[in-house]
Design goal:
The complex is a heterodimer of chains A (391) and B (221).
Chain A: E1 3-7, E2 13-17, E3 21-25, H1 26-37, E4 49-52, E5 59-63, H2 73-78, H3 84-91, H4 94-108, E6 113-115, H5 126-142, E7 145-149, H6 179-185, E8 190-193, E9 199-202, H7 207-214, H8 218-223, H9 232-238, H10 249-252, H11 255-258, H12 271-283, E10 318-320, H13 323-330, E11 357-365, E12 372-375, H14 378-381, E13 383-385
Helix pairs in contact in A: 1-4
Chain B: E1 3-8, E2 11-15, E3 27-33, E4 43-48, H1 50-53, E5 58-63, E6 71-74, E7 80-86, E8 93-101, E9 104-111, H2 121-134, H3 136-147, E10 152-158, E11 163-172, E12 175-183, E13 195-200, H4 206-211, E14 218-220
Parallel strand pairs in B: 4-12
Antiparallel strand pairs in B: 1-2, 4-6, 5-7, 7-8, 8-9, 10-11, 10-13, 11-12, 13-14
Classes of the chains: A alpha/beta (391), B alpha+beta (221).
């Protein structure tokens, strides 16, 4: 295992892992399985997991829907040391078969290393779990290939139209899960497989159909999130109809796509999504983050942050517009002399203070009210509504 | 495309969207958008409209449509319910708004004196929903003023030929029991359209209140 030694000034010596990504040694795991299958003696010292550098290692990665029969890190490592009854119980699980089949596919494609989230993170360590979740977008991005395993697809061709009889949301379950959004976008090469591990197609070929299913624009699916990134509200909208088992994961699964990091605090509930928005505000001046519920749906009275990605549902067509266009649009509502210039720092700065988010806005009171205001503000005028199937 | 903000104690909060948008002059202003959580309990309403339906009024519709029954709960995401009643004989019709705004319950009545929405009751309900949402802080203030120390509040509203008496009694701080009654021969001069609070003998059983609020021994505050 790669380690470095850190010597503190109190002369205490600490071991630190140089790399945080634990990968499956494809060859070692398949050989061990072959020996177990044949009832032969297994080398208990053979290591099936190893910490590697995700920046230089060529590895495949699995994207899938978790089931109740997964195999965790401890079980995959200790399998060789288990008695036969316990070992067979693990080996017959769907989750184990899934890892094996992924390894076989990786071997077939010439990859020595594979990452699977069920067994490559030691979830007993909250520090490791937090680090893994904060690194996960990058891990999917750096993977040479991502195997998207659609456990509920029996055909060897991809659906082009929704099938409401077969699937609750019309499409395979993989498309309704929160984490699979970044797993679809981050890797440049995503290969789809059906239940029997027959290759169906790949992300680039299917880009148009995937846009229809997920609302993620075709150009993002083909080229990734490089260049002109979509605005925050649009990215949030892609997650609006997706679900996660833990409510906190609704937020954590979006960190990579939105380019922020934060510690995991399972148990915080919907506050995770508030923290995510505050992290975004700290690192960006994209005011579309306030545009949730602009159509009136799901708006509640209270703080300025959204409670859930679902209220961004109708923001999928939003785009940022240039400051000069914004100022020009305001000339209908304000005397020219009172309009700020495009260079005015007040337009694009909104720091978080202990009192609230300090921001300059364009306000107009409703008739007869001194406390309810329409907000024709940068946050709305910075974004532009393009025609879309969602509006 | 716009969002609405509510000014409260010098901070701004997000509030429900309205169909129309103010078209007057805008001001470029520095504000503080509150991001800290605000916790508000839900408000339960129980409506007794039997007295007005006995007097020739018909329940027409509710907006949003999900609030069809006479018992409902308002939350921060569903802060307002409008119910419309009409009387074919007299031509009277009115909307009653039941609202919850930042944890404060309120009720407001609006009749359409110019009969713009006659027979278009759903549109009337929708229109009033937006007006009342925009005026929610004023309705809260009006009711709060009368409610202070009171267990019952009564408001009289002029209709075309009749008057509506709205009476609310609090079973608990979050449970509003509302009774609607019609006054056949009102003295319109004395109708202010404002809430008046009354202190009620706590020993009076709740059903007594429903039978006749007039008979209750009340002490004007």
């Amino acid at each position: 295992m790669d380690t470095i030694l850190v010597v503190g000034h109190n002369l205490r010596v600490t071991h630190m892992f140089l790399y945080s990504m634990r990968l499956i040694n494809v060859k070692a795991l398949l050989e061990r399985e072959e020996l177990m299958e044949k009832g032969k003696r297994v080398d208990r010292r053979a290591k099936v997991l190893k910490f590697c550098d995700d920046e230089v290692t060529k590895y495949a990665i699995l994207s899938h829907r978790w089931t109740e029969q997964e195999v965790d890190c401890d079980e995959i490592v200790e399998l060789a040391k288990m008695d036969k009854r316990e070992r067979d119980e693990v080996r017959q699980r769907d989750g184990y078969r899934k890892i094996l089949d992924s390894c076989k596919q990786a071997k077939k494609d010439g990859y020595e290393w594979l990452w699977v989230d069920t067994c490559c993170i030691d979830k007993r360590s909250s520090a490791e779990l937090s680090e893994a979740i904060n690194s996960m977008y990058r891990w999917y991005e750096n993977a040479r290939v991502c195997y998207a395993y659609l456990h509920d697809v029996l055909d060897s061709s991809f659906l082009v139209e929704p099938n409401n009889e077969r699937y609750a949301n019309g499409w395979p379950e993989w498309f309704s899960r929160g984490w699979t959004l970044q797993e679809m976008i981050a890797p440049s090469n995503v290969q789809f497989f059906n239940k029997e591990w027959r290759a169906i197609s790949d992300k680039r070929t299917l880009a148009r159909t995937l846009q229809k299913i997920t609302a993620v624009p075709e150009h993002i699916l083909v080229n990734g999130l490089y260049g002109d990134r979509p605005c925050v509200a649009q990215i949030m909208s892609w997650a609006s109809d997706r679900t996660t088992t833990r409510v906190e994961d609704r937020a954590y699964s979006l960190m990579g796509l939105l380019g922020v990091n934060m510690p995991m605090l399972y148990g915080e509930g919907k506050k995770a999504f508030h923290r995510l928005q505050l992290e975004i505000i700290r690192t960006s001046n994209d005011q579309s983050i306030f545009a949730w519920g602009w159509d009136g749906e799901g708006v509640r009275t209270g703080n300025i942050l959204a409670d859930d990605p679902s209220v961004f549902r109708y923001c999928s067509a939003m785009e940022l517009i240039k400051p000069d266009e914004f100022i020009k649009s305001l000339s209908l509502y304000m005397p020219e002399g009172e309009l700020p210039s495009t260079e005015d720092d007040r337009l694009g700065t909104f720091p978080i203070t202990n009192r609230g988010i300090q921001i300059w806005l364009f306000l107009c009171p409703y008739d007869g009210s001194d406390s309810v205001f329409g907000c024709h503000v940068a946050l709305i005028h910075w974004v532009h509504q393009w025609p879309s199937t969602y509006t | 495309m716009a969002i609405n903000l509510y000014l409260r104690e010098s901070n701004y909060y997000r509030c429900a969207e309205l169909d129309s948008f103010p078209e007057s002059t805008f001001q470029f202003r520095q504000v503080y958008l509150r991001y800290q959580d605000t916790f508000h309990r839900n408000a339960a309403f129980e409506i007794d409209d039997s007295a007005i339906t006995r007097n020739g009024f018909t329940y027409q519709c509710a907006y949003p449509a999900k609030f069809t029954g006479n018992t409902f709960i308002l939350t921060s995401t569903n802060p307002l319910c409008i119910k419309v009643y009409s009387n074919d004989e007299t031509g009277d019709y009115f909307a009653v708004g039941f609202g919850q705004f930042f944890g404060k319950d309120w009720i407001h009545v609006k009749s359409d004196e110019y009969r713009i929405w006659e027979s278009f009751y759903e549109e009337f309900a929708q229109e009033e929903c937006h007006h009342m949402l925009a005026s929610a802080p004023d309705h809260v203030r009006s009711m709060d003023k009368a409610r202070s120390g009171a267990r019952v509040c009564i408001m009289h509203t002029c209709l075309d030929q009749l008057a509506l008496r709205t009476c609310v009694m609090w079973k608990s701080s979050r449970e509003n029991r509302v009774k609607l009654e019609i006054l056949r021969d009102p003295s319109f001069d004395g109708i202010s359209g404002e809430w008046t609070g009354f202190d009620v003998d706590v020993s009076v059983p709740a059903h007594y209140f429903y039978n006749s609020i007039i008979d209750i021994a009340v002490h004007r505050i």
